[in-house]
Amino acid sequence: MPKLSRLYIKLGLAYFVGAMLLGIAMYAQPLFNLPRWIATLHPVYLHWITIGWLTQLIFGVAYWMFPKYSKEQPRGNEQVGWIVLIALNTGLILRTIGEPLSALMPDKGYGWLLVLASLLLLIAGWGFVFNTWSRVKEH
Amino acid sequence: MPKLSVYFIRAALLHLGIGFTLGALLLANKGIPFAGWIWRLLGLHIEFLIFGWMVQLAMGVAFFALPRHTDYSRRYGDVRLGWLSFILLNSGVWLTALARWFGTNDFAFGGRIILLLAAAAFAILIKPRVKAFGVHQ
After folding, report:
1. Which chain A residues touch B27 with a CB distance below 8 Å?
2. B8-59 pLDDT, tens per residue?
3. Nearest Cα residue in chain B from A131
4. B54 and A54 in contact by Cβ < 8 A?
5. Which positions of chain A have pLDDT values less than 70?
6. Which residues contact A137 (CB under 8 A, 6 or more apart)?
7. How many CB atoms are located within 10 Å of the residue A73 CB?
8. How far apart are CA A105 and CA B107, in angstroms?
9. C or N terminus of chain A, fewer CB within 10 Å?
10. What is the ipTM of this complex?
11. The pTM is what?
């Protein structure tokens, strides 16, 4: 399995476990009177499951197993693969930090973190489409 | 990869790109609000990424990766059912998504019925290919 796929899948597993912990924390927050910012993490929780885990697992397996692009570049443009990995994970982390900050302190100007996260996630999504499209072909 | 899988997976990739674009608009608008109507995109964002991307990708990969029939001429089963399923799935996704945009529950209900038919057609096509090693059909 290529290094990039291993990283996608291992990071995906980390988000999977992390999302389950977040799920517990959100239910525990009112029960045990935990800090209020935990309650703002519901969108983060959903996106750790759907993007951090499921989509990232798909990206890793597709990068590894989809038909080869060419003999010289079997997995398409590897640099794009790295850009997607970095943009996706940086975008998700920025979102994780930005959601509670901008929800609890809306007048402090933390909204730009979410704008930056949105741009990075956009780059990741279309980067994967761009790099995978030509590998999806009839044999 | 068979032609039907190419269509399923490329359609899934397009839905991924569109779904991420809508998601980026929603997230940016949450950070620095610039248009109130952006929130109406939430239903489309969810529809495109759950059914258009993940469900459709799984169908495309299952169609080429699951064990094939021994009769070479119909190794993938009745492919017409697969094409029907592809058309129904994408029609259902778009009908539901547009219905959520316009807030018309009747059409969203219709979209869900179409998705059910897509799932049924796909299940009928694929079920015989889910078999143990050494079983010939």
Report:
1. 95, 114-115, 117-118, 121
2. 999 999 999 999 999 999 999 999 999 999 999 999 999 999 999 999 999 9
3. B13
4. yes
5. none
6. A67, B1, B6
7. 12
8. 39
9. C
10. 0.93
11. 0.94
